């Protein structure tokens, strides 16, 4: 089982959205794309933004970074990216 869950990840990513605005992430597919992109960045040599990431797989690190708000998913009007 994935920890945190998809629902928890979606809520964490959308936590900065103002009431009345459309959420940045609305589906599991969006979370998977953002997480996979960040994992590829980590594989390519970028430094992890979460402590104690030694020994963890890049996908696990990417999920943790999204959950903790260390990376940001931008909306559909521009490509999905982490800043």
Tell me what you see in this structure.
The protein is mainly α and 83 residues long. The protein contains 3 helices and no strands. It has helices at residues 6-13, 28-43, 58-68. α1 (6-13) packs across α3 and α2 packs across α3. It is elongated, with a radius of gyration of 12 Å. The mean pLDDT is 81.
Q: List segments where confidence is low: pLDDT < 50 over at least 5 consecutive residues.
A: none
Please trace the helix and strand order, writing H or E for each element.
HHH
Relative strand content:
under 5%
Overall outline: elongated
For this entry, what is the oligomeric state of its chains? single chain
Distance from N terminus to C terminus (CA atoms, Å) equals 28 Å
Rounded to the nearest angstrom, the radius of gyration is: 12 Å
User: Which percent range fits the helix content?
Assistant: 40-55%
Total number of strands: 0
SSE-based structural type:
mainly alpha
Mean pLDDT: 81
- Tell me about the largest β-sheet: none
Q: Please give the count of helices.
A: 3
């Amino acid at each position: 089982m994935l920890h945190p869950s998809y629902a928890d990840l979606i809520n964490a990513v959308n936590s900065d959205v103002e009431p009345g605005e459309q959420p940045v992430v609305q589906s599991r597919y969006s979370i998977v794309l953002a997480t996979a992109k960040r994992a590829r960045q980590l594989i390519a040599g970028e430094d992890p933004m979460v402590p104690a990431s030694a020994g963890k797989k890049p996908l696990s690190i990417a999920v943790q970074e999204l959950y903790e708000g260390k990376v940001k998913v931008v909306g559909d009007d521009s490509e999905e990216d982490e800043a």
